[in-house]
Amino acid sequence: MPARTYEADVLIIGGGATGSGVMRDLALRGITCLLIDRKDLNAGASGGNHGLLHSGGRYATADAETAAECRREGDILKWLAPECIDDCGGLFVAVEGDDEEFAGAFPEHCRVAGIPCEPLTAAEAREREPDLPEAIMAAYAVPDATIDPFRIVLENVGHAQRLNDSAYLPHTEIEEFEISDGEIRKAVCRDRRSGERVEIRARQFVNASGAWAEKVARLAGCRDVSLLYSKGTLLISNTRVTNGVVNRLRLPDDGDILVPGGTVSLLGTSSVTVEDPDGIAPTIPEVDRILAEGAAMLPVLNETRFVRAFSGVRPLLKAAGSETDGRKANRGFALFDHEDQGLVNFATVAGGKFTTFRLMAEKMGDLIARRLGSAEPCRTAREPLPSGEALRWTEPGAAARDWFRRADPADMILCECEMVARSAVDTIIADAPGAEDHMSLKAIALRSRIGKGACQGAFCSMRVTSYLYDRGVYDSPDGLRLMRDFVKERYKGVRPVLWGAQMPQAELAEILHCGLAGMDLATDADGGDAK
Amino acid sequence: MKRGHRRIETQLAVIGTGIAGFAASIFALKRGLDVAQFGHSGAMAYTTGYLDLLGVHGQRIRQDPWAALDELRRDEPQHPMSKLSNPTIRTAFDGFTDALCDMGIGYTKAGEQNLSGLLPNGVAKPTLSVPKTMLPGIAAREAGARTLVLDFDGLQGFSAKAFEVNFAERWPALKSARLTFPDMENRQVFPEVLARSLENRATQEALAGLIRPLLNGAEYVGVPAILGMHAPDEIRARMEHAIGATLFEIPTIPPAVPGIRLRECFERAFPDMGVKLEPQLKVSNVEFGRSGATLFLHGPMEDLEIEASAVLLATGRFLSGGLKSDQHRLSEPLLDLPILQPDGRQEWFRHEYLDPRGHPINRLGIEVDSAFRPVMPDGDPVNERLFAAGAILAHQDWVRQRSGAGLAIATAYAATEAAAAMLA
Amino acid sequence: MSAHPRGDTLDFLKVAKDLLPAGASYDACVGCGICASGCPASGLHGMDPRRFINMAMLGMNKELSTTPWVWACTQCKRCAYLCPMGIDVSQLVGAARGAWATEDKPSGIVRSCAAQRLDESTSAMGIMSEDFVEIVEETLEEIQENQPRFADLKVPIDKKGAKFVINQNSREPAVEPEEMAPLWKILDYVGADWTYSSKGWAAENFCMFTGDLDAWKEMVETRVDAINALECETWINTECGHSFFTLWQGIEKFGLEANFEAESLVTYYAQWIREGRLPVNSDWNTNNLKFTVQDPCQLVRKSIGDKAADDLRFVVKTLVGEENFIDMQPCRSANYCCGGGGGFLQAGMSKERRAYGKRKFDQIIATEADYVLTPCHNCHSQIDDVGEYFGGAYTVTHLWTLICLSLGILGPDERKYLGPDLADINLPDEE
């Protein structure tokens, strides 16, 4: 099989917030990028977080520098990408039994980091969040907000694609770098779906692969990147529990933050150090611990229906001889130019937070532009992020409201829970990043709310698959395999929250997937014929 | 104004309106028992319409369900069907399908071998008895006959194209096409709505008129299951005549017609057959006395007390409310029957969704003795007047084993027989 | 009708939490769509019951607070009947209706409710108490004069201590007073000790349909007070659906003191036939005309349950002959609402109402019946209307018409709702 070849000014490895941020940053400077990811956008920590746009309050006590950085970057994003952000505000709340001293010192820490912090009485706090318990020791309001991590990454990539010939290739995994004379000549990759070899030539190579940055750097022979992997698990509720973010006012621990995510809420976050960023999944003990802790702050969580749990791996920088506890490790980021490793056209950005992705991208953009001889300055702190028609469907309720407003009776809804209609799926198939290649159920789900409602894909997987066959997007039994892969993947997040109201849902899902679709009898080889 | 109060006396009170519950009422009537049946609409509308006996055993698809049952008795002696002989199971199965035929929904008689029932994705499943409206599709596929499969604008989750593409390799003479159902332009349509509309002869003629020009030599025409709700066999025959090709139905995703057909067929026929049926009402409590049990139900305007000499519990699993769970334990909410279960939910579900061994939780449920009486952990019956049948029973995995109907019918038969013997 | 700009925006998740029992609230929904599949209002204004729940969960409170669909949902509760979790969307629809600004609600419903509040008669057609008494007396005199057999017919009004107090839909006194006669004759035939009440006699309650709980309560209070004052044992609801539901449900919902029992006339028809006091039979049906019957949602599914459906069938089969009775499918508690209820007939949404009624029409056509019997005024009007609109060849009739026909006491002027095939059958003997 001959290799596919590509050429670009810059190859960016890693389709998360940072990689997509670098892509847009460079495209705004007139530099053409090719972005690759071994899976798809936000496959790592960028898609595995709670979507909190930090005010900085969470780090104010332990890490004033990160806290201040969060506050500055949060303000910039609220200003430049308002469509990706719900400026819902947040509370820090100490309940009975929490450390009074810690709580008492909070306003001063916020002041030092420049974070607005308004003390509230218990009654005022409950007015904002009626589900808070009676026994509130202390409560402060901070300017926390939430961000749709999928939308902003899609918008970054979409904007870069519109600016110049920058392009995005999903399912493209780096296998090796061809290096000579202190420069990477090309990246040799594999298309994970077709198995094809893909060769990419570029002048500069950017490693923004998050938790995989150490591995990728090593492929280029660089041994200067050293990461600590901290697994964080979160739970997603069926409906939105609180109006704003609610943080427990204590040293960060499991289950002490509840973040609205549009129409749902996310409860987290645990922190467990793991050896390997691959193959992680939420576990039942993690879920139970998070829920028990969360319910101490918000007892209503005990009666809340959770539809899913998920985990992400925080890539934390490991300074020599430093902490091995992820929660205490530095949340800052670092830029590696790798010049001391003997390479002049390779750089890695690692660590950091979602909230500070733009700043990370700016620093990387400055380095790469300088290396390429460009004098164009960074524009991402000034240039508003425009919104693309095919990119706005990850926002909970967006597809539903759009469909309702247009009131076209011929526009069928494919996903009922989240009310995603054919028209929204059509725009994704036509225009979303990655559409140049081949859209699958999973790719469409990543770019929309499909599969994210209460049924967790039980119905919509079948309805969307049918539609993709109708449209000719699928034309072989492979469509069924992709559907099976999709529900198998969804299940990993569903399993730990299976109790109560999710049990009838799970039973119905199995009746559909096994009884009606025969997924358990199908084998990958024959595409599903039971005989 | 006082809230109404009504007392009903019956010999056997069946709780649950799924296949097991309806089958139990049929068998009880045949036994000459006075029977009353209750329960809120359950999970019946989620069925494909196929009646499975045992399609998978030892993680393999089985052609001969009877031989598979023999193996089941050896490999899974605790399985509810392992308590019954093949002749007993056949008697029960035949009794049920005969009753359905009598009520106007034609089903094939159980044979020696499983059939390969067609599924909407273009796959097939092992099943024992199929609605007569679906039978020709099986033959068409086996013969590789020239066949046209249709779907309809606005009908979600059923793609004739997907059906065609997925069967294409072994059934090249299969083609697909899309139609707009008469008077259903530009709108979402549910299979149920199309089926109701086809009860009207004018719609049958209009649809046949649309199908005819598309035939192009096809001997068979497959449609999603929409051929009427109450007389599907007649409607199919009439439309076949009008089209000039053999017509067959293919199951659809829920809410699907075959299950609604069954439920409405029972609801229609039972009152005339003498079953006191309250399909709207959920039993809120059961109290056992010396000579029987009292069931408590609450209608919108009145409370009902049912005095029954025996009670048959066929309340299904989670979807129909027969079982419940909190974060740590399963429970049976009506009578708080004991459920043997692991400590905590770690072992409820496997890590892989489609693990061919199935999820352990599906095998948790109510333990019964040889007379299908729920038992206490020590093995003694909870009450000599209490019987249980269907999916609520432990040690079975009806979805994965393709044994839903067989389990429901066979255990309903056995439990009813045991109840009749107790009452005699 | 357009979306209204002025009403309150409700928080529907909170409404659901307040109105629906735990375990049967939005959080119990498995998204199966049985409700939507079985709802005749599905698709109107892009809505259906499942979408209502999903939109609530998606926080689309503005859309739910403004969609005109809440006036196309007749609150028939078929969704709750079918739902394995028992989720009752109709209650959320009622709350949504109530939040609309009065001036934006369908004016027909609002006007009818306003008319009901004008006078203690509670008549939606604006008939005052004294007018009602006068109309009844005039109509009675006419019968006494023209129909010798009923020269001594009595129609008591405000007779304290009568066993039964019976209500009366406004349509008859307002536009077709002769249609009151069959019921009077039946009551006379069985020798019932009954009375009308001059206050609160009207058998309609559009205030419930407006979603205005205070107005609903006011209606029920007026009626309950009037019935209490008459000290009758039993209040019998005439051949009407919602007026039954609104009263007993109102008594329960608003915690009113009612010193009487609430029963349906259908129950008594069946009882009187069983007791031999109403010796009807099907001898008159020599042409074997086929009949089907509409189970009013308000009477069967929402109130008495299948017991009412059983009584209804017993009455009809006795009247027309078992072999001439054909049930619609589905029927009884699972029956489809015809689309006449919930104020739909008065809402000025005829396009939507007929689209809704098409399913009922198909059901009726599938029976191939010549007549549809409807013990409910709204069902009667709607089924008649969709029959005409979609070209059905059936006739819609009340039970009292057929009962009197069978008894040979149905006068020639009381055959408005019979087809020509029955115009001359079993006319009373000329004396």
UniProtKB/TrEMBL annotation, chain A:
The transmembrane segments are: none
Stored Pfam families: DAO
UniProt-listed GO biological process terms: glycerol-3-phosphate metabolic process
Does the record's keyword annotation contain Cell membrane? no
Organism's domain of life?
Bacteria
Q: Provide this UniProt record's keywords sorted from A to Z.
A: FAD, Flavoprotein, Oxidoreductase
Q: Which Gene3D superfamilies match?
A: BFD-like [2Fe-2S]-binding domain, FAD/NAD(P)-binding domain
This protein's cofactor list reads: FAD
Query: What Gene Ontology molecular function terms does this protein carry?
Result: glycerol-3-phosphate dehydrogenase (quinone) activity
**What range(s) does the FAD dependent oxidoreductase domain occupy?**
9-364
**Family to which the UniProt record says this protein belongs:** Belongs to the FAD-dependent glycerol-3-phosphate dehydrogenase family.
Known PANTHER family for this protein? GLYCEROL-3-PHOSPHATE DEHYDROGENASE, GLYCEROL-3-PHOSPHATE DEHYDROGENASE, MITOCHONDRIAL
This chain's protein is named: Glycerol 3-phosphate dehydrogenase (Quinone) subunit A
Query: What does the organism's lineage look like at the top?
Result: Bacteria, Pseudomonadati, Pseudomonadota, Alphaproteobacteria, Rhodobacterales
TrEMBL record, chain B:
InterPro entries registered for this protein in UniProt: FAD-dep_OxRdtase_2_FAD-bd, FAD/NAD-bd_sf, G3P_DH_GlpB_su
Q: Name one Pfam family in it.
A: FAD_binding_2
Q: Does the keyword DNA-binding apply?
A: no
Cellular component terms, GO, for this chain's entry? glycerol-3-phosphate dehydrogenase (FAD) complex
Keywords linked to the UniProt accession: Flavoprotein, FMN, Membrane, Oxidoreductase, Transmembrane, Transmembrane helix
Pinpoint the FAD-dependent oxidoreductase 2 FAD-binding domain residues.
13-407
Q: Where are the transmembrane segments?
A: 12-29
- Any one Gene Ontology molecular-function term assigned to this protein's record: glycerol-3-phosphate dehydrogenase (quinone) activity
Q: What is this protein called?
A: Glycerol 3-phosphate dehydrogenase (Quinone) subunit B
Q: Which source organism does the UniProt entry give?
A: Aliiruegeria lutimaris
From TrEMBL, chain C:
The entry lists its GO molecular-function terms as: 4 iron, 4 sulfur cluster binding; metal ion binding; oxidoreductase activity
Q: Which residues form the 4Fe-4S ferredoxin-type domain?
A: 20-50
Supply the alphabetized keyword list. 4Fe-4S, Electron transport, Iron, Iron-sulfur, Metal-binding, Transport
> What is the designated name of this protein?
Fe-S oxidoreductase
Species annotation: Aliiruegeria lutimaris
